[in-house]
TrEMBL record:
FMN binds at residues 107-109, 136, 158, 186, 276, 298, 354-355. CDD domains: alpha_hydroxyacid_oxid_FMN. This is Alpha-hydroxy-acid oxidizing protein. Its cofactor is FMN. Keywords: Flavoprotein, FMN, Oxidoreductase. Signal peptide: none annotated. It comes from Miniimonas arenae. The lineage of its organism: Bacteria, Bacillati, Actinomycetota, Actinomycetes, Micrococcales.
Length: 403
């Protein structure tokens, strides 16, 4: 028989203690975000649908993005037990210099549209956390203003090849003058991908009022107040634009670019060169032979060619083919620190993350980006410890199995 009694106040009081209320709503929201998926849900609530979909979406049926994320979800870790993992070193080398974490912030366009602090918030977090940051050609803060916001950050500039080559040369000269360390040439955008969410939402830049956007804006008043009461967007590379994103890309970027144009690029840019958008072993060999300092296995986050190869699956064979001649980085589908560790174990020197920090930015501005880094770094450390490794350099294919 169970003996029962009426509980006394002394029995109940420890159970009734309430957590202190934090009046800072942003801090309160972010503290409850334990994963990047949590930040994504916050971002969806705080951002107009068309803007969130621009960040979250991919091309056509979005098969490329789903396949990339499914590949990460289906892989199997293989831990080794009974190792002293009381101390873990997450430092890696990118372009011959140390990075505190084995990822960089990937270049993303129109970032101030997602949250008004935009690129300056991201570069400040990068500076504090020792993470390289790449400013996009399609960024909404100028090259010089980003440099001023993060003077001690490792800054890279991402370039698309323009039909007007003199514009590209001017951008590279500005980046060099402002102290940008490396150039990232993105090569998988001869034309814009068919991003159907954007078309269905009537998405344009800058946002234009319609019945749909007005009704959506009524449920996101803070976003619209920020848009209307902060300085107008200042592009990294443009004076102004009115139209859709696809129209902008197709009007500016050169679909006739070939490998021969790398010689022109090298004649203008004398710093480290990264080629982003490699999707086959053959192309990886070509850009490595052409002298790229690093290549990024990437299908543009699934935003260009649907049914493109999954970049993560290319890592082992590309690393074996190029060896140490060219650093091998990978992006697309990375949503956790475990994803980062898996990519490193398969042979990547480093990774790039884009959507993960953008969800944080939309969820809480600069503090949201910081929270995204906290989440990723915590997951990286925990995964490494559970695998039985002390440093990034110890990770290898014995720690992961692709399915």
């Amino acid at each position: 028989m169970v003996q029962r009694q009426i509980p006394s106040w002394g029995d109940l009081s420890p159970l009734l203690r309430l957590r202190p209320f934090d009046p800072d709503g942003t801090r309160r929201r972010l503290a409850g975000a334990l994963t990047i998926a949590d930040l994504r849900r916050l971002a969806a609530r705080r951002t107009p649908k068309s803007v969130f979909d621009y960040t979250d979406g991919a091309a056509e049926s979005e098969i490329s993005l789903r396949r990339a994320r499914r590949t990460f979800a289906n892989l199997e870790f293989r831990p080794s037990i009974l190792h002293d993992v009381s101390e873990v070193d997450t430092t890696t080398s990118m372009l011959g210099r140390p990075a505190a974490l084995p990822f960089s912030f990937a270049p993303t366009g129109f970032t101030r549209m997602m949250q008004t602090e935009g690129e300056t918030a991201v570069v400040r977090v990068a500076e504090r956390r020792g993470i390289p940051y790449a400013l996009s050609t399609m960024g909404t803060t100028s090259i010089e203003d980003v440099a001023a916001a993060g003077p001690d950050a490792r800054k890279w500039f991402q370039l698309y090849v323009w039909k007007d080559r003199s514009r590209g040369e001017d951008l590279m000269a500005r980046a060099k003058e402002a102290g940008y360390e490396a150039l990232i040439l993105t090569v998988d955008v001869p034309v814009a991908g068919a991003r159907l969410r954007d078309s269905r939402n009537g998405f344009s830049f800058p946002p234009q009022l319609s019945v749909k956007t007005f009704l959506d804006g009524a449920t996101h008043p803070n976003w619209w107040v920020d848009l209307l009461t902060t300085p107008t967007y200042q592009f990294a590379s443009l004076d102004a634009w009115n139209g859709t994103i696809g129209e902008l890309l197709d009007s500016l970027f050169d679909p006739s670019m070939t490998m021969a144009d790398l010689e022109w690029l090298r004649s203008v840019w004398d710093g480290p060169l990264v080629i982003k958008g490699i999707q086959t072993l053959e192309d990886a060999k070509r850009v490595s032979a052409a002298g790229a300092d690093a290549l990024v296995l990437s299908n543009h986050g699934g935003r260009q060619l649907d049914r493109a190869p999954v970049p993560l699956r290319l890592v082992p064979e590309v690393r074996a083919a190029v060896g140490e001649a060219t650093e091998v980085w990978v992006d697309t589908g990375i949503m956790s620190g475990g994803d980062v560790v898996a990519a490193l174990a398969l042979g990547a020197h480093a990774t790039m993350v884009g959507r993960a920090y953008l969800y944080g930015l939309m969820a809480g501005g600069e503090r949201g980006v910081e929270r995204a880094v906290d989440i990723l770094s915590g997951e990286i450390v925990r995964t490494m410890k559970l695998l039985g490794v002390n440093s990034v350099s110890e990770l290898g294919e014995r720690h992961v199995r692709l399915h």
